[in-house]
Fold this sequence. Notes:
128 residues, alpha+beta, Endonuclease, Chain A, 4-stranded mixed β-sheet, 6 helices, 4 strands, globular
Amino acid sequence: MDSKTAKKIKSKNTTIELLLGKAMWAKGLRYRKNCKDIFGKPDFCFRSKKIAIFCDSEFWHGKKFLDGEKFQTNQGFWEAKIKRNIERDKEVNRKLKEDGWIILRFFGEEIKKNTDLAVEKIYKLSGK
């Protein structure tokens, strides 16, 4: 990945976040976005219900890596980076669970292909 490509990668308001957020809003779910004061900075949260939602890309959060996909270049760097991201996700999940939070993690393709299913899962947990 070159620096030009890396500059295009966003951490907020990604396509999958916008898609899920609009679908939740249409269903009547009112959430907070990019919750900085909650450990792990969930993409969406429902503070009163203690629900934290993460929209994870397959690349950065290691789904493709765990599925056996190999890196074409700079394998050592990318393997270490993705392994650390996976470990960080586990740490965030562990800490939030200890604090009484419900954690939902959706991969991008899951959101794109089954937005309604993801929203329904969130809707049921929110007690609506």
